Amino acid sequence: MASGRVRAAIVGGSASSRLFQEIREKRGMAYSVYSYGSQYEEAGQVGIYLGTREDNLVECLEVTAVELRDLGDGNLRGGELERAKENFKGRLLLSLESTSARMTRLGRALITDTELITLEETIRRIDAVTEDSVAALARELLAPEALSAVAIGPSEKRFRAAAERFNPRVLARAA
């Protein structure tokens, strides 16, 4: 779980993440871009949200594909892993200030019958995440051939053209 959250922070979990920096800050092509995930015992989801104009869609998807491939190839940038770990630990510690977040954590453990891990153990697991474990998880979860896509916008034709360039198999599965 720690590797997944660190990977998410690298991809799109904060303003220093790859997608935020490449798509929003450097290119100014999106209003919003981030990644998110939900983990369960034997299932889950990883998502990337991109709010952009339709004329930026192709380039945004191309940048996303490059970044996902680069991460899966194990190409972490200087300090990227440590920044992601510190970001995750900081958000975790801040969440403990919220009674609602604390109760949600306890309730989730109770409902899913999973062990409630101490803060110290969670931090130890975050610190133990390696570049190799992040790359392996990215290869498994973010391989273009395993992804699906959905869009809301005025032109289905434009979306299909952009998705085709990102991953031709996405449209074959939709047919």
How does this structure look, described?
The chain has one domain (2-169): 2-Layer Sandwich (Cytochrome Bc1 Complex, Chain A, domain 1). It contains 9 helices and 2 strands, in the order H-H-E-E-H-H-H-H-H-H-H. It has helices spanning 2-12, 18-26, 57-72, 80-95, 99-111, 119-127, 131-141, 156-166, 168-174; strands spanning 30-39, 44-52. The radius of gyration is 17 Å and the shape is globular. The model has no long low-confidence stretch (mean pLDDT 86).
Summary tags:
mainly alpha; Cytochrome Bc1 Complex, Chain A, domain 1; 9 helices; 59% helix; globular
Structural class: mainly alpha
CATH topology: Cytochrome Bc1 Complex, Chain A, domain 1
Strand-and-helix sequence, N→C?
Answer: HHEEHHHHHHH
Strand content: 5-15%
The number of E-state strands comes to 2
The residue fraction in helices comes out at: 55-70%
Radius of gyration over alpha carbons? Answer: 17 Å
Report how far apart the termini are: 34 Å
CATH class: Alpha Beta
Shape: globular
Strand order of the largest sheet: 1-2
Uncertain segments of ≥5 residues (pLDDT<50)? Answer: none
Instruction: Provide mean pLDDT, rounded.
Output: 86
Which architecture would the CATH scheme give at its second level? 2-Layer Sandwich
Count, helices: 9
Number of domains: 1
Q: Largest beta sheet, briefly?
A: 2 strands, antiparallel
